[in-house]
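Hi there,

I know you've been waiting on this one. I reran it after we fixed the sequence typo, so this is the corrected version. Both the input and the resulting structure follow.
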Amino acid sequence: MGLRVTFELDDNDLRHFRLIMQQARTTAARIAPEDIVATAEELLSSIGPDGAPTFVTERLQKLRLLISMLKDIEWRLPQAEANRVLNALAYFAEPEDLIPDSIPGLGFLDDAIMIELICRELKHEIEAYQDFCDYRTRTRRDSGRNTRVSRDDWLENRRAELQSRMRRRKRKELAGKARSGIRLLR
């Protein structure tokens, strides 16, 4: 039987985590981007399948996603967004944790909290990347496993989807207005 534990971080707690992140970014500014990514990858590989509680491993999957966003050649994350993700990963380049990772059951709690906070701030970048990955999977399924899919392909597809939706909505609205006789533009 599992046990559910919940807690709330108030504004002071969040300020504390922001300060820690600011310090990590300052330290990481002296570290090469590939080393920041490598350190985050080392954290992931250091945790075995039974090395952390489920609530931690679920957040670590999000950390894997952030790393993938940076390394994915087909995605080519623009520099400004790549810098935001690197700044987020900077926390994991810091050797000192709030809670030492060696403490069973709790050692990765601070990492899990930080990942959760980071993912909230990078919500739009993560959603766009997941949308791109879904598009790439569909395209490769339909066109062949080795099909190259670029961010430009995804954007063009997304633009076409949005324009199609716009036209459908417009036709539906115009049909309603035609019945009522109200129409300003042709």
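Quick highlight: The helical segments are 11-28, 33-46, 54-71, 79-89, 109-121, 123-143, 151-180.

Best,
R. S.
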